[in-house]
Amino acid sequence: MPFITQSSIREVIDKMDAVAVVGDYVRLENRSGRFMGICPFHKEKTPSFSVNPDLKLYHCFGCGKGGTVLNFVMEMDKLSFPEAVESLAKRFGVVLQYEAGGDTEIDKNASKTEALFELYARVAGSFHYLLTQTPLGGPALAYVLSRGISHEMVEKFKLGYAPTDRYWLYGFLSKKGYSEEFLAVSALFAQKYPRMSFFADRLIFPINDRQGRTVAFGGRLLSGNGPKYLNTPESVVYKKGQTLFAIDAALPEIKKTRKAYIAEGYMDVIALHQAGVTNAVAPLGTAFTEEQARLLRRFADRVSLVFDSDNAGQAAAVKAILTCRRNGLTANVVVPDKTALMSMNSRRVAGDGIEDTLKRVIKMKDPADILKEFGKEVLKNSVKSDILDFDYLIARCKEVYDTNESEGKVKAAAFVFPYLEALDSDVVRDTVLGQLADALRVDREAVRNDYNKRRTSASFARNAATGNSQDQQPHRVTGIRMNDELFLLAVAAVNDSLYPQFRARISIKEIDDPAAKDVFIALEDCFVHDETGLDALLPRIDSENVRKFIVERGASKEFSSNPKQLISDGIKRIKQKRIERRLANIVTELRLIESSQNKDENIYRSAALYEELLLEKIHVDAELRKLKENKE
Q1: SS3 for 50?
Q2: Is residue 435 left, alpha or beta, with left meaning phi > 0 and alpha meaning psi from -120 to 50?
Q3: Would residue 562 be called left, alpha or beta, if left means φ above 0 and alpha means ψ between -120 and 50 degrees?
């Protein structure tokens, strides 16, 4: 595969909006020119993640992760360097140029991830066509519409249909030029039978990433035997624990409101979007995961759980509450109530009063059922009625245990203890613990004692081990000693446009510190090859600690304020110290000669050296005086 030209890479970096790019993953706030947010690489509550838009650097002062924004994209999306450059080039309208040596247009798209994105887009389009434009998809489309889902939502989510013939998809894609080897690793076909489609006679839900690229598919069985829902296996572009259904459609509203609704299934999410709740997402065939919570935490502060009212749904809600709290998200649970229903013009069954309607809504298993039975206005208003996660847990434990009995009180308290452990504030935890005791009508000190005993037990530690760690202490780069030389080279590295003038005033022979020399050599190599920017510089620095040091200081903007003056002052300090050291050595040698002459040790030879040193001292004194007078 031919290399992308350096000029193209430079153009991508120059045109790239660092804040916009990182803002796709982390909510950033402008704090006096520094853009801060919650770090996506470690668990924290107070923002310590910083982006420097001028240098296009990121750095977390909590965990120490940092680098260029290009590195950030590679890390977040698991891309190679060329893939990250190509992705950003598309976003910022840069036409990449490639070095000679092959069919660049074919080779450019030859990466496995890019090829999979193109394949999934084609398959999603084909399934959608079968659902909406052919008799084959008629029954599946009729089913969707019978659930109250509109044609608009069918188009918005690009719903599709996989035909009963399991060999249809392989034949279709083979005719489009896809190789047998590539289709075998596409996650669309059975491993043992590589020509047999993973889906047959299923309603298809394309699963997209944050950028709206299709990365996988979910399928609902319409007839025959088999699991009701089925997802494509994980691949290089799809990790189900790190993806949420409808995240691309929901993200704008999530960013705007700082809130997300989490439902259990595809149809529930689509129903919510149809009702105007466009910040709704869903896990993908599994419980709500730690990775999914951290993904939402980048853009939201709170979530509302819209889970089924059956036992499985309620158990999932309890787990989701703990997952949210462990990852810094405030969680509410949707529970429709009379107040919400009284405020709307609901479509009721003839003869039903508001109480009857309320009972029927509460008995509905999921949002899709409410949409079908009552319409989008009822659904929209019903999800507005939610309660705090703690209140929900109290109500839930009273349903499960008989809290009129002492044994039931003990079990009910134990049911809530993992929630207490997931809280990130001792003050809040102590307050909630008191509320728990009051709700169960037991002595507060008794509940506190039980909690403390349980907290220190091995079993409780295992229950809390799913991610409940304290925020890391601020990270500092170790093994690097700040000195004038390293400070100067760091300023030059962060402001490499000044390097041509810098190198004309000081040479590497005047630098003693090994870390500073490492940076100097890297800067000179970039200069010789006419490459600029930290994306070119950092890989040339051998020491990882030095690289981290440059990124950390660059992200802090410490070296960006009046860099010309910083460099001028730095050069002056280094030259002055070198002259002062030389002067001190001359004085020492003169004293040694004076001492040897007193002992009649080779007087003539010593006299000549003494005179030579005196002349050098006069010259060094004058050089130091000029430097101090700013007359270099």
Answers
A1: strand
A2: alpha
A3: left
Please provide the DSSP assignment of 312-331 as one string. HHHHHHHHHHHHHHHTT-EE
Distance CA 414, CA 539 (A): 52
Nearest to 46 by CA among 33, 57, 65, 61: 61
> Residue 585's CB: how many other CB atoms inside 10 A?
12
Percent of the chain clearing pLDDT 70 (strictly above): 85
387 forms beta bridges with 333
Both tokens assigned to 323: 């997952």
Question: 380-408: per-residue pLDDT in tens?
Answer: 988 888 899 999 999 999 988 998 888 89
Which pTM value belongs to this model?
Answer: 0.65
Backbone angles phi, psi at 238, to 5 degrees: -140, 120
- DSSP conformational letter for 55: T
**How many other CB atoms sit within 10 Å of the CB of residue 181?**
9
Q: How far apart are CA 407 and CA 409, in angstroms?
A: 5
Q: Tokens for 188?
A: 């669309």
pLDDT in tens, 477-512: 555 677 888 888 888 888 888 888 888 888 888 888
Residue corresponding to tokens 């300023």: 491
Q: How far is CA 355 from the centre of its chain?
A: 45
With vertex at residue 46, the alpha carbon angle to CA 43 and CA 50, rounded to the nearest 5 degrees, is 90
Burial of residue 178 (CB within 10 Å: 0-12, 13-18, 19+) is: middle
- CA 145 to each of CA 127, 334, 628: distance values in angstroms, whole numbers, following the listed order: 17, 26, 84
The CA distance from 494 to 485, in Å, is 14
| 121: helix, strand or coil | helix
Rounded distance between C-alpha atoms, residue 22 and residue 631, angstroms: 46
Kindly state the helix (H) or strand (E) to which residue 29 belongs, with its residue range: strand 29-31
